């Protein structure tokens, strides 16, 4: 009924969230990674749980505690993240907030590379699977609503629009992660100013803390999911 929907807009839904970076080993002691604190993804998982959803949070290595009530699946690499995401499906809504490393070292060594042997190493990189695009284009497993993020340093909206089309998702949450005057940055920080990009156009939200962005996004996802199901 409408009262329950207002209080718990995601009651009975399964929400899958990816968050944090992935770590791609170079050798047992070194890795390649993107900058990501995981804060925005963890806040979305917490907000979805507060909205009544069952929540699975597939997370790369971060220094955050999992939100109470949320099922955490901890992974390291992009390939592990894809496997964990597949395992967690089906879901009604999937939010891909992770900063997945785009490449991994083709033949990561089992032993630590020593500085004194063979000079400066050269690495062959291979592309990681695109987890968002894989799930968005999977006819059998696609959640009703698939949401991606786009962290950009320039032409934020243009790049995000291209990603929406390329990846086949319903919504892109885009933000500007370029260094700001005064040194404040979205990355690792507590605030975020996002643009919501969908087939229907672009909506720019005011600067908010990451919890507020998460709560507003979750409220919007409840509406969009019901609209997509025509209920
Ligand atoms: N993503 C993913 N798997 C990847 C790369 C990205 O699931 N291997 C997801 C991210 O979680 C995010 C969205 O795709 O939701 C966009 O990520 P982004 O890095 O901005 O896009 P890329 O397609 O990797 O393009 P680029 O890094 O060149 O801007
Ligand atoms: Ca990328």
Automatic annotation (TrEMBL):
<dbReference type="GO" id="GO:0004632">
    <property type="term" value="F:phosphopantothenate--cysteine ligase activity"/>
</dbReference>
<comment type="function">
    <text>Catalyzes two sequential steps in the biosynthesis of coenzyme A. In the first step cysteine is conjugated to 4'-phosphopantothenate to form 4-phosphopantothenoylcysteine. In the second step the latter compound is decarboxylated to form 4'-phosphopantotheine.</text>
</comment>
<feature type="binding site">
    <location>
        <position position="149"/>
    </location>
    <ligand>
        <name>CTP</name>
    </ligand>
</feature>
<feature type="binding site">
    <location>
        <position position="167"/>
    </location>
    <ligand>
        <name>CTP</name>
    </ligand>
</feature>
<comment type="function">
    <text>Catalyzes two steps in the biosynthesis of coenzyme A. In the first step cysteine is conjugated to 4'-phosphopantothenate to form 4-phosphopantothenoylcysteine, in the latter compound is decarboxylated to form 4'-phosphopantotheine.</text>
</comment>
<keyword id="KW-0288">FMN</keyword>
<feature type="binding site">
    <location>
        <position position="112"/>
    </location>
    <ligand>
        <name>CTP</name>
    </ligand>
</feature>
<feature type="region of interest" description="Phosphopantothenate--cysteine ligase">
    <location>
        <begin position="15"/>
        <end position="231"/>
    </location>
</feature>
<feature type="domain" description="DNA/pantothenate metabolism flavoprotein C-terminal">
    <location>
        <begin position="10"/>
        <end position="221"/>
    </location>
</feature>
<keyword id="KW-0479">Metal-binding</keyword>
<feature type="binding site">
    <location>
        <begin position="129"/>
        <end position="132"/>
    </location>
    <ligand>
        <name>CTP</name>
    </ligand>
</feature>
<comment type="pathway">
    <text>Cofactor biosynthesis; coenzyme A biosynthesis; CoA from (R)-pantothenate: step 3/5.</text>
</comment>
<keyword id="KW-0285">Flavoprotein</keyword>
<protein>
    <recommendedName>
        <fullName>Coenzyme A biosynthesis bifunctional protein CoaBC</fullName>
        <ecNumber>4.1.1.36</ecNumber>
        <ecNumber>6.3.2.5</ecNumber>
    </recommendedName>
</protein>
<feature type="binding site">
    <location>
        <position position="102"/>
    </location>
    <ligand>
        <name>CTP</name>
    </ligand>
</feature>
<comment type="pathway">
    <text>Cofactor biosynthesis; coenzyme A biosynthesis; CoA from (R)-pantothenate: step 2/5.</text>
</comment>
<keyword id="KW-0456">Lyase</keyword>
<keyword id="KW-0460">Magnesium</keyword>
<keyword id="KW-0436">Ligase</keyword>
<comment type="similarity">
    <text>In the N-terminal section; belongs to the HFCD (homo-oligomeric flavin containing Cys decarboxylase) superfamily.</text>
</comment>
<dbReference type="GO" id="GO:0004633">
    <property type="term" value="F:phosphopantothenoylcysteine decarboxylase activity"/>
</dbReference>
<keyword id="KW-0210">Decarboxylase</keyword>
<comment type="similarity">
    <text>In the C-terminal section; belongs to the PPC synthetase family.</text>
</comment>
<keyword id="KW-0511">Multifunctional enzyme</keyword>
<feature type="binding site">
    <location>
        <position position="163"/>
    </location>
    <ligand>
        <name>CTP</name>
    </ligand>
</feature>
């Amino acid at each position: 009924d409408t009262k329950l929907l207002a209080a718990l807009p995601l009651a009975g839904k399964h929400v899958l969230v990816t968050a944090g970076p992935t770590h791609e080993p170079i050798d047992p002691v070194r890795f390649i990674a993107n900058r990501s604190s995981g804060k925005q993804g963890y806040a979305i998982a917490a907000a979805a749980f507060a909205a009544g959803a069952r929540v699975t949070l597939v997370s790369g290595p971060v220094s955050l505690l999992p939100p109470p009530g949320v099922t955490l699946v901890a992974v390291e690499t992009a390939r592990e993240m894809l496997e964990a995401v597949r395992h967690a499906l089906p879901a009604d809504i999937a939010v891909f907030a992770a900063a997945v490393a785009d490449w991994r070292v083709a033949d990561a060594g089992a032993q630590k590379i020593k500085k004194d042997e063979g000079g400066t190493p050269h690495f062959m990189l291979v592309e990681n699977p695109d987890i968002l695009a894989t799930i968005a284009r999977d006819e059998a497993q696609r959640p009703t609503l698939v949401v991606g993020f786009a962290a950009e340093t320039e032409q934020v909206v243009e790049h995000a629009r291209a990603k929406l089309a390329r990846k086949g998702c319903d919504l892109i949450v885009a933000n500007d992660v370029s260094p700001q005057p005064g040194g404040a940055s979205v990355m690792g920080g507590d605030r975020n100013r996002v643009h919501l990009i969908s087939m229907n156009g672009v909506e720019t939200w005011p600067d908010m803390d990451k919890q507020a962005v998460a709560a507003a996004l979750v409220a919007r996802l409840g509406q969009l999911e019901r609209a997509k199901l025509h209920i």
